[in-house]
Write a structure and sequence with these properties.
The protein is of the alpha/beta class. It is built from five helices and five strands, in the order αβαβαβαββα.
Length: about 300
Amino acid sequence: MASQRDVRNRISSVKNIQKITRAMEMVAAARLRRAEQRIAALRPYAEAIGRMTRQAARAAGANAAQVPLLVEHESEANVGLLLITGDRGLAGGFNSQIVRAGTRIASDQAEQGRNTIWYASGRRGVSSVTFRGHDLAGSYTGFSDRPAYADARTIADDLMQGYLDGRLDRVDIVYNAYISPLTQRVTHEGLLPVPRAPFSPEQTAPLDTPDPGGAEQRPAPVDYEPDPKEILKRLVPDFVEISIYRALVESTAGFFGAQMTAMRSASDNAGEILTDYTLQMNRARQAEITKEILEVVAGAEGLS
């Protein structure tokens, strides 16, 4: 049995760890609230861009085929795969489940004779993909806690340029969609060509804020100036950028939710360990007291 001093040292260490996990839980909770506000503000705009893109594509008709980002390549030999993870850990399986999903997708592509070209956002994703021996065509780090639209534009520019140059025949994106603080759903979406990635707000559960856009209804007649094809050329890059930005923001909220849950679980586990150590220390104290009493009794009997 460990001595009282050893058990007391262990209790002190666990208490220090519990203070850290509780502080991290509170910080993650505060950041999660801000991230939820950003999602609530972003979703109506992203849905509107999606509706406008679809309406312009319908209005353009056959001329939509003249927009390169809408045209499917004859073959899909090279598939770009963008993984969106966090820059930090201590969030349970938040990052690892994205990497595992990307690995499964790459294996499926290999079985079909396709080559996977890797892109990763977040230090955890970059390091995991590199550790598995894959070369990264693009890595983006340092902004996962608070992504800006400029970050999404940088990623979108690389992916769209690769698609236009013919280095990529298709682009998919894998990220954690935010459902609730306790639930993040691994989501795999097609990004390029754009018709493979229609924006569907039903893919993610709504927040408490009601959706002002509602379901897409039959569009009212629209006059396009200069013409639908030119409008579509401007809308499609914006659609790709907002799709990536939405995924980044969803992933950020999901990360803080996962971290808050993980730190709460760690704090609860620390409390259980403290209870066990306290009982163990009490037993050690009782054993020492009993031993001292027996020694006193034995000494008294020896003198009598």
